[in-house]
Amino acid sequence: MNNSLLVYFSYNGNTKMIADYILNKINCDVLELKPKIKYSDDYQSVVDEYQNNETAKSTTKLEDYKIDIDKYEKVIIGSPVWWYTITPVIRTFLKDNDLSGKTIITFATNAGWLGRTFKEIKELCPNSTIKNEMNIVFTTNHKEHKLKTEYKEIDEWIEKIK
Fold first, then answer.
1. What is the number of domains present in the chain?
2. How far is residue 24's CA from residue 19's CA, in Å, rounded to a whole number?
3. How does residue 42 score in pLDDT terms, banded at 50, 70 and 90?
4. Above 90 in pLDDT, residue 57?
5. Rounded distance, CA 67 to CA 14, Å?
6. pLDDT greater than 70 at residue 38
7. Closest of 92, 128, 125, 86 to residue 108, by C-alpha
8. So what's the pLDDT on residue 58?
9. Is-contact 39 28, C-beta < 8 A?
10. I want to staple 9 with a disulfide (CB 3.0 to 4.6 A). Which of 25, 33, 85, 92 is the partner?
11. How many Cβ atoms from other residues are within 10 Å of residue 42's Cβ?
């Protein structure tokens, strides 16, 4: 039985790119979270709507998923950074699921503005062991899907979390 689960949300493909990369190197189950109401494809519209995400700590309804979280000991969580913190999709998942006693490994994709992303995950999972956070930086042009963080650094991180 596999005891690791990779949970992620990807708005424009960057976080999915990293999740797929991890899945090619680690044997784990995967859960891609999706909001019930799809976000606009217009990046600026999403920015305008969620620019106060950090202070509002908004959540959203998620598409149904069927996975038994209890069977996993380790949960790898990946989120884009929206206004210096996790997305409403990841926030909803963390609020809806008790991850007490689990080891949580997090990665965040962003253009260099990590903010309090990892701190909020720790606040939402106070009874979990959180370690090996990884900040993965892309260029500021989100349509490029071009990493600034080197793959060598990501590979070293993956070796630590296996």
1. 1
2. 9
3. confident
4. no
5. 24
6. yes
7. 86
8. 87
9. no
10. 33
11. 9
Sign of CA dihedral 135, 1, 64, 143: positive
Side chain identity at 9, as an amino acid letter?
F
SS3 for the chain is CCCEEEEECCCCCHHHHHHHHHHCCCCCEEEECCECCCCCCCHHHHHHHHCCHHHHCCCCCECCCCCCHHHCCEEEEEEECECCECCHHHHHHHHHCCCCCCEEEEEEEECCCCCCHHHHHHHHCCCCEEEEEEEEEECCCCCCCCECCCHHHHHHHHHHHC
pLDDT per residue as tens digits for the range 103-119:
999 999 999 889 999 99
Res 52: pLDDT: 63
Domain residues for 28?
Answer: 4-161
Residues 6+ apart with CB under 8 A from 14: 80, 109, 138, 142, 145
CA distance linking residue 104 with residue 120, whole number of Å: 13
Where residue 93 sits, what CATH number does that domain have?
3.40.50.360
